[in-house]
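lol so apparently i was supposed to do this last week
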Amino acid sequence: MTTAPPVLTVADFATESIAVDQLAQAGYVIVPNFLAREHCQQLYDYALNLPAQGWQQAGIGRADNYTTNSAVRQDKIRWLRADYHYENAYLRMMDQLRLELNRELFMGLFDYECHLAHYPPGAFYRKHLDAFKGRSNRILTTVFYLNPDWQEQDGGQLVIYGERGEVLETVLPEAGKLVVFLSDVFVHEVLPGARDRFSITGWYRLNTSIGGVVDPTR
Ligand SMILES: O=C(O)CCC(=O)C(=O)O
Ligand SMILES: [Fe+2]
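anyway here it is w/ fe (ii) ion bound
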């Protein structure tokens, strides 16, 4: 018997105009309880129970410039697809958020791509930007955390840096928390953790198609 896919809704973000205002003003926002606990738990269980072959070693760059480099990042990923129930539920919810952001902030976000990420104990992702100014159509990064009972001593924080290299935020990857930031503005890194760390990282993109050729994702 298959269980019905969860119906996910944008719990806080869309209705909380404070969060949208914060994003507009600071260029990033941290929403502690983006998704209800049971939905978050379902996604966590889903990620935990995926078979090993459901994951791939994460790489750096897109298309022709793609390489894997374990000195930079050590997580395993799985791109979400609409033909898997649980994955589709998350994609649909984030599409609602896309429409909401376009309505509120006139961002003209065209689509969304995201992957599950699994950082085994000790894994990290060194300082980086998700997009380079004028060279990418990734506009907004979203990171959603799935880890119940994550404590300070478990490590694995996301550190977000400001323009002068100062620490703006040190974020614990706690279940239900969503972080959104401008992809080409904020340098960030994932510190090594003591536990398995699960998240869903995604990007809202602009359509930079030229001559009817749709810009490839990833
Ligand atoms: O998991 C995180 O906290 C951030 C991941 C990240 O920076 C990325 O995948 O580009
Ligand atoms: Fe990143």
